Amino acid sequence: MTKVRIKVGPRQYSIACGPGDEEKVARFGKLIDENYAKLGTARAAQESENVVFAALFMADELDEARTALGDARTELAELHRELQAARDDLANATRHASERSEEDKARAGGKKAELRAEIETLRKAEERARMDNAALKAEIAALEEQARHQHDLFGGPAEDAALSEALAEKLEALAARAEKTASELEGRAEPS
Predict the structure, then answer these.
(1) How far apart are CA 173 and CA 170, in angstroms?
(2) Which pLDDT tens digit goes with each residue over 119-130?
(3) CA dihedral sign, ordered 152, 155, 160, 163
């Protein structure tokens, strides 16, 4: 045990303490002396009463510190709850965003497959239209050839008029089919 000398008011005290506690005891003695000095001219006749008043000042400061510490702990707990709520909100928002992203990907994939199928349908329709067009051209060529031979065989103007009328009907039918095919292709190519 070591001893530390402290001064409180007009008196000196020798305080026993454990090794390494000397500085702490000296600091506490200085704190008591500062509170003793707060008495000023209102000191009591008995020195022990003055020390008790100094201790009461310190007890008041300690009580205020404990109250402030309690308030700080309450506020810290509230802040901790708010922080946890914010973390939960962030986690929920992240989860919802991820779910929406997956849904958007799935919808985009479905739409992509749908568009591919439509493109394939349009390609097939275009191929059919080309084949129909080629067949109609061949038919027109055959009719023209027939018309030339009939004119050569029979050579009359009435036959020429009938042949021209049949040819005109075939051409109109071809034009109508071409317009219908073009309309179908345009209708399928428009985005939905």
Answers:
(1) 5
(2) 888 888 888 888
(3) negative
